[in-house]
From TrEMBL:
Entries under PANTHER family matching the protein: METALLO-BETA-LACTAMASE DOMAIN-CONTAINING, METALLO-BETA-LACTAMASE DOMAIN-CONTAINING PROTEIN
Transmembrane segments: none
InterPro entries in alphabetical order: Metallo-B-lactamas, NDM-1-like, RibonucZ/Hydroxyglut_hydro
Pfam families assigned: Lactamase_B
Protein's name according to its UniProt entry: Metallo-beta-lactamase domain-containing protein
Boundaries of every Metallo-beta-lactamase domain copy: 24-239
Domain of life according to the entry: Bacteria
Gene3D superfamilies noted in UniProt: Ribonuclease Z/Hydroxyacylglutathione hydrolase-like (3.60.15.10)
Signal peptide: none
Amino acid sequence: MARHVPREIAPGVHMLTLGRGVAASNAYLVRSGGGTWVLVDAGWRASAPAIEAAAGRLLGPDVRPTAILLTHLHPDHSGAAGALARSWEVPVYAHADEVVMAAGRYLPERSMPLDRWVVVPLMNVLPARRRAAVEAAGDITDVVRPLAASGAVPGLPDWEYVPTPGHTPGHVAYLRRGDGVLISGDAVLTVDLSSVVGAVTGRRRLAGPPWLTTWDRAAAQRSVEALAALNPRVLAPGHGRPLALGTARALQALARGAAVTAPRAAGRRAGLAPGPVLRALRRRAGSDGCC
């Protein structure tokens, strides 16, 4: 897939891949039934110009989103959220259990192996002023808001959020139940980032979140099971290519603990939904006026 070019993977849902190799993550530009749009996840901090350019290319230079939605607050998904929110003058939404991370500071009770083994030791050797600057750069407390407990999604009346804790305490996925489109964040990936081979080669495999950056692996597995129970038709992951054929069956196998190779039938061009699947989704979504 061409870098920084949004590609439609489901009606009104465009995926934008930011970064390269193991550092690449996905953001989604999603249109609502009323003609407005939101951004789901925001890549790395340096991703802001690429996201703004992609939004302008797709939607027009003067069209701003109604909100930025986050699956979780990790720097490869929330990095550009603050800069974009301030530029566009829109709020950022995350689960209430995630908002505590918005100050950009290390919290021991929410740490993951990478924090304990790498990030904290590095931060501890920084001069106090430099450490404060790093934390301040990641602070989005001025723009972040908690998602409503009802499950409603700001700016997307035909979507709902699904709590999927484990990778982080307040991780969520976003579901359009009408046609089964699921933006899974890091709760479920289509690339194996938990092995050296997978991370280096980008091996396509349905997988849970990378264990090195996961807060609670048992909770993460329960979240995989919860998503499998939704029987989604299209999986739009935080890392890797979208999956549009055999999605529910593959996710159910993953929930049972099986290793699942992401089928190449998910799309000849970079895993996009193949023509018949996308047309069927359009017909199904058309009754909601989503596109």
